[in-house]
Write a structure and sequence with these properties.
The structure is a single chain. It contains eight helices and six strands; from the N terminus they run αββαβαβββααααα. By secondary structure, it is α+β, with helices and mostly antiparallel strands. It has two domains: 174 residues; 39 residues, no CATH class. A four-stranded antiparallel sheet has the order 1-2-6-3, with helices on both faces. Strands 4-5 form a two-stranded antiparallel sheet. The structure holds cobalamin. Cobalamin binds next to α3, β6, α4 and α8.
Length: 273
C-alpha cells in the first residue's frame, strides 16, 4: 500500500465517521465476489472500488423485545435518511477533493424490478458480501453480516467509486457462531432458512412484512369477492387497510426481525432489553 493510499483511505474514513458512519471499510472491485449480483459497472462504468458504511441504530430500536414498532423510527427510517445524507456528502467530498465519480448504493429500496428479479429482489451491490470481503464483518449462520462492534444490528450503505483503492483485509480468527447457543435458523417463525443456509425470500417476507404488496393483493382479492358493498366498506375502514396503505406509502414495517434482534453477536445494543 502506498503512502498516498493510506492518506486517501484515512481522509475518507475520518470524513465518513465525522458524517455519522460508525464503521467504514474499503473493497477493491477485484476482490468483490457476489455471483448472483449484477456487475457493478452496470451502475457506474468507471467504478474501481466500494466504500462501505455501517450505521448502528439508536438504543431504543431493540429496547422492547416484542415491539417491532420501536425499531422502525430508531432504526429503519432514521438510519436510512441519516445514512443517505452522510453517503451523499461523502460522495460529494470524494468527487471534489479526489476527482472521483461516485454512485450511492442504497440500503434496500428501490430495487431494479424486472421479470427475473421481481419475486426475489437483488440489490445493485450485495452490501453483506462487500462488508465481509472488506473486513468489516463475518458471515453469520443467519446469513447476516456480523460486525464485531454491533453484531448484525447495523444498516449498510455503499459508495461505488472510480478510485482504485486497495481492499481492507478480511477479518481472521473471529467466528461468533461457532460457540453460539442461539439457534437462529430453526427458531425462524417463517421457516425461511434452507439446509444450505440460504434465506427463502417469500417465506421471510410473509412473516416479516405482512403488509407488503403481495398481501395487499390478497386483501384486494378478498374484498372483490365480498357479496355486499357494506362488507367491502367494512374492509376499507379496517386497521388492516390502513396498515397496507401506510406500508405502500413507503413506511415499511418489519413485523419480525428475530434473526437480527436475538443474535447474540455483540449484544451491546440490545443487552438488558
Ligand atoms: C433483497 C434483500 C432482502 C430480501 C431477500 C434476502 C436475500 N436472500 O438476499 C428479503 C426481503 C427476504 C430480506 C430480508 C431481510 N433483510 Co434484507 N436486503 C436485501 C438487499 C436489498 C439485497 C440482498 C441481495 O442482493 N441478495 C441477493 C444475493 C446477493 O444473495 P445471495 O448471493 O443469494 O447470498 C445469500 C446466500 O447465498 C448467503 N450467503 C452468501 N455467501 C455466504 C457465505 C456464508 C458463509 C453464509 C453463511 C451465507 C452466505 O447470504 C445471502 C442471503 O441469503 C440487501 C441490501 C444490499 N444491497 O445488499 C438487504 C440486507 C441484506 N437486508 C438486511 C436486513 C437487516 C434484513 C432483515 C433482517 C430485515 C428484517 N426483517 O428486519 C431480513 C433478514 C433476512 C435474512 N436473515 O437474510 C441488511 C443486512 C444487515 C446485516 N447485518 O447483514 C441488508 C444488507 C440491508 C442493509 N442495507 O443493511 N432482505
Amino acid at each position: 500500500m502506498t503512502y498516498e493510499d493510506v492518506t486517501l483511505k484515512e481522509g475518507i474514513r475520518n470524513k465518513g465517521k465525522e458524517l455519522g458512519a460508525d464503521l467504514v471499510s474499503f473493497l477493491n472491485l477485484k476482490d468483490y465476489k457476489s455471483p448472483r449480483s449484477p456487475d457493478p459497472l452496470r451502475y457506474l462504468p468507471s467504478a474501481k472500488s466500494i466504500v462501505i458504511l455501517a450505521f448502528s441504530p439508536l438504543a431504543g430500536a431493540y429496547r422492547y423485545r416484542e415491539n417491532t414498532w420501536s425499531k422502525m423510527p430508531s432504526f429503519l427510517y432514521a438510519v436510512e435518511s441519516a445514512g443517505n445524507t452522510a453517503a451523499y456528502h461523502l460522495g460529494k467530498l470524494m468527487e471534489r477533493q479526489y476527482k472521483a465519480e461516485c454512485f450511492l448504493v442504497q440500503a434496500h429500496r428501490p430495487f431494479e424490478i424486472n421479470e427475473e428479479t421481481f419475486r426475489s429482489p437483488i440489490g445493485s451491490v450485495s452490501l453483506r458480501h462487500a462488508a465481509v470481503q472488506s473486513g468489516m464483518a463475518v458471515w453469520g449462520k443467519n446469513t447476516l453480516a456480523l460486525t464485531r462492534e454491533y453484531g448484525p444490528r447495523v444498516m449498510f450503505l455503499g459508495l461505488l467509486n472510480s478510485l482504485d483503492i486497495t481492499s481492507d483485509p478480511p477479518i481472521k480468527g473471529y467466528d461468533p457462531c461457532s460457540t453460539c447457543q442461539y439457534d437462529c435458523r430453526s427458531t425462524c417463525p417463517g421457516k425461511a432458512f434452507t439446509e444450505e443456509g440460504r434465506v427463502l425470500s417469500h417465506r421471510c417476507v410473509k412473516v416479516s412484512q405482512p403488509n407488503d404488496v403481495g398481501n395487499f393483493m390478497r386483501f384486494l382479492m378478498e374484498m372483490a369477492q365480498k357479496p355486499s358493498m357494506n362488507e367491502r366498506l367494512e374492509m376499507i375502514k379496517s386497521p388492516r387497510f390502513f396498515r397496507h396503505l401506510q406500508y405502500l406509502q413507503f413506511f415499511i414495517h418489519y413485523h419480525c426481525d428475530n434473526c437480527t434482534r436475538y443474535c447474540p453477536g455483540s449484544l451491546s445494543v440490545s443487552e438488558g432489553a
